Fold this protein.
Amino acid sequence: MFLLLMMMMWMEVTAIPSSSSPSLSSSRQNSHESLDMRRLLCLLVKRVEGRDGSTCESYPPLCTCVPAWQCRDEGAAEEASGNILSLIVLKNIRCGVTEEVCCVQVDENAPPSTPPLVTPSCGQRNLLGVGSTFEGLEEQQSQYGEFPWTAVVFTEHLLDGFSFQIFTAGGSLVHKRLVLTVAHAVQGFSADQLNVRLGEWNTETETEAIPHQDLEVVEVLLHPDYSGGPRHHYDVALLVLKQPVVLGTTVSTVCLPAGEEDYLPDGCVMSGWGKKNFDDSSKFQEVMKAVEMPLVQHDVCQAALQETRLGPGFLLHDSFLCAGGQKEGQDSCTGDGGSPLVCPLRSDPSRYVQVGVVAMGVGCGQMGVPGVYADVLNAQPWINEVIATKFSGSENKIKGIWQIELHLRNQGSHLPLLMK
């Protein structure tokens, strides 16, 4: 009945009247010529509600989805105070692409805003984003450039003569030529099969204001004590890059703590592109996610894991730490393996130090079940040795704090714990 009513109203609004109504014919024809779909919908809704449809005549014109910097609509953007890296706050209709707005007045020749030249400090989080602060993001989505140390690790594959890349793990930039990741995700791959991307945010588009950087890997270094067997431990690896990255607002290193006293155990954040839920319907994220969570004491975590299918005999190795599990969804998940877990620097909470690398867990996001991360402090003597051996000079340190980074969880492990 409703559908029939709508069709009758459609005919009434759009049909050209007969010659028996000449006065209406002219006005209705003119109205029809300027009628777009949104005005038509407005008229139909007003008619159903029994209200005057005259306000539909001033309905705003159709807009086009464009990159934010090309929009000249009044009120589409405004300056964001308090952060020199974030110049625009978007105030417009969300489009299918996160970094686009629906705009009427479009300037296709307008370039993206250029962030000021800076010398980035390690672990500097861009809380308001770089160039733009996007409003209306989904839960756990990060701002563009918010975590400039987070990396994507790809593996190269060949099929029927065609070469293609597969998203394999996450990672973090700890030095201009070193990415930290999980060993279980990269073991078995040679250096020439791996590539690293930095400065990525939305993996489905290339409309970010600053292009990402793709880098080749020349060496894969697994922790010398790494074991993937039943007594899984030291699940960290370093990828040596062929060329140093170009540091800037969207690509910079993360700090490496000197000790537990250097960082705050609450307000820690995991950033990556893994799934939100542990089920078949969940998918990898297009926009980099950010999940805030506190650290969990080692003995508390082990006790919680013993209550799961792992059983009372499960022992958590000292080379791991835990975080999250205080509420539903507070966890890393499949596809996050190798991604960094960072915590605020005690002396400067606006900067972050990496404390963990996403490694494994029992399911994803269950209340009372923390996620398991490779402990960066535990692996730090080896990381420091690699940096000191392979690189020399002042570039090894940034403001006195060593840099480090991590890698991705993956599937298919034979271990009781899900390798993320």
User: Anything to note?
Assistant: Confidence is low (pLDDT under 50) at residues 1-35, 79-89, 394-416.
